[in-house]
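@channel sequence for tomorrow's demo:
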Amino acid sequence: MSQRIQAAELRQYVTRIIAMTGSTPEEAAQVADNLVMANLSGHDSHGVGMVPRYVDAVLEGGLSPNTGVKVLLDTGPMLNLDGQRGYGQITGVQAMNMGIERAKQYGVCTVALSRSHHLGRIGHFAEMAVAQGLVSMHFVNVHSRPVVAPFGGGDGRFGTNPCCIGVPMGQRPPFVLDFATSRVAQGKMRVAYNKGEQVPHGYLIDEHGHPTTQPGVVVVPQSNGLFGALMTFGEHKGFGMAVACELLGGAVTGNGTWHREADNRRAVLNGMLTVLIDPLKLGTQDSFEQEAQAFSDWVKQSPDAPDSDGVRLAGDPERAARIEREQTGIWIDDATWGEIQASEKKLQAR
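structure tokens (generated this afternoon):
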């Protein structure tokens, strides 16, 4: 079962819960807006269903409300920032605002952000950049229970390690490619488990390393106390991309890589390496927009494949989902809604 909730109502409710963790009204509203936008964009895995985990992380001391970034290094076109375990919806935006300002000044900026709590949907940050006419590239690693198996491996060794690329397209909607290097995001397995659904073959292995379609193997401990794992997309290619994100988002930023046994902590810490480029400063602005639009037209002129909806570029599905869900509301399954309400009660009882 599930229920449909209007975005405005959901924002108000989530803002109230986040404020109860100790956040200022402004911070609570910004976090809630970000989470609801993920739901509106069709990415329920990064939406309000994360609230229970955030509440647990605050109660455990792994997430620090009202904490912004700390500047560790500033050379102009290079920034090294410490998120200090603050809400990623806050620290990520702060890092991007600083990076965008520098990219416009110098033509390029590299931003290393470490120790940020869960950054949420990385596409949000790419959308910030493309709105200012900038190209952006983001490589992220995850400090949490390792839920993704290496290609050829039989258990989880790293996180979903997202990669995101944003490219402005002049007067047209931007290209925003945002994907987990796992076959599917961990949060989508939580959503599927709460709905009582199975997932396609090739997504998961169980705690013994065998293929399974049961999402619960990566959501709740199995009979032996162990978890299963997600698989990378594209076999060895996705594995290689996941390692690249671990090295760039973890080692280069100073966030650190994952190389220890899993624990039960609820905090999710991210490192993100962002590269911002201003085509105007590069001197390619006019030809860049013309070529980007010409290629987009060329690709979309491909005839529809049988049983398909035709060609869509990255960012198109999210924009369509926002229009539809703003009008009709956001579906929240009963299990997820119950978890959110339980997190509110935890805060009321402390």
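heads up for whoever presents: Residues 144 and 271 are 12 Å apart (CA to CA).
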